[in-house]
Design goal:
The protein is of the alpha/beta class. It has helices at about 10-15, 20-30, 65-80, 95-105, 120-125, 145-155, 170-175, 200-220, 220-235, and strands at about 1-10, 30-40, 50, 60-65, 85-95, 110-115, 130-135, 185-190, 190. A hairpin with a 2-residue loop joins β8 (about 185-190) and β9. 6-chloroguanine binds near residues 89, 133, 137, 139 and 141.
Length: about 250
């Protein structure tokens, strides 16, 4: 069983967000466990304070080291080792499918969700193993980012998805976006399902889908398309030694 410990000042946000649909089902099946840890429960401040002004001045408040460290230590004491600990921050490395697959191999993962203007650097140095961002924009806190990561990692944990659902990562590992899908009815608002999909000719269907994938990738993700073209070259043995750079 994979356990996600989410250290946060807003435990109900994380609990509410992850109890529906596929993730909720996997929790019920005891494939996953999601434990929201309320950082405020660990403060030694008698007023429940967890933040203070930044040394050196500046806007906003900084989350203090003590409650975060004690909340983390309670997790360590419970599981008997120091788990991989991810700090959600726009300063981190950008999350991608390969990271989701790698994180899915761990039995326990801790997520630290920051708020205010940041977290005291000293506690980060003590507990954090990975600094991760989910993209180039700024959120008000790490909770939504943690939920994004938990979702993407969870679907890579065996048993979370049904056979029907399939843990494919096609879109990202062959460097192409997915082709469009259609279901009944055959005509909707005068729009017809592409003829080839009704033909039963599997070779033609496959070729059409690939063509669609290539066109969409070229248009929306030229960066990904470039990698697709290179990788195709490698597969067909016409890649030159000089530019087989790894990514
Ligand atoms: Cl991980 N945290 C916050 N606060 N903002 C973000 C982010 C993370 N990733 C992108 N923006």
């Amino acid at each position: 069983m994979t356990t996600f410990y989410i250290m946060t000042l807003f435990p109900e946000m994380v609990e509410q967000g992850l109890k529906t649909s596929i993730i909720g089902r996997a929790v019920e099946k005891e494939i996953l466990r999601i434990e929201a840890v309320n950082i405020r429960d660990y403060t030694t401040n008698k007023h429940g304070k967890v933040d203070d002004y930044p040394y050196g001045g500046g806007a906003g408040m900084v989350m203090q080291a003590q409650p975060i460290y004690d909340a983390y230590q309670a997790i360590v004491d419970r599981i008997g080792r120091r788990p991989r600990t991810i700090y959600l921050t726009p300063k981190g490395q950008t999350f991608h499918q390969g990271m989701a697959k790698e994180f899915a191999l761990d039995e326990e993962l801790v997520f630290l969700c920051g708020h205010y203007e940041g977290v005291d650097e000293r506690v980060l140095e003590e507990i954090v193993t990975d600094y991760v961002s989910i993209g180039d924009y700024v959120l008000t806190g790490g909770e939504l980012a943690a939920m994004v990561m938990v979702d993407a990692i969870s679907r890579m944990v065996p048993g979370t998805l049904s056979n029907q659902e399939s843990g494919e990562t096609e879109t990202f590992h062959n460097y192409l976006l997915e082709y469009p899908q259609y279901s009944r009815p055959e005509i909707w608002r005068d729009k017809k399902v592409p003829e080839v999909l009704l033909s039963g000719h599997h070779k033609n269907i496959e070729a059409w889908r690939l063509e669609q994938s290539i066109a969409l990738t070229k248009k929306n993700r030229p960066d990904l398309y470039e990698r697709y073209v290179e990788q195709e070259g490698v597969q067909h043995g016409r890649k030159q030694k000089a530019d087989t750079g790894s990514r």
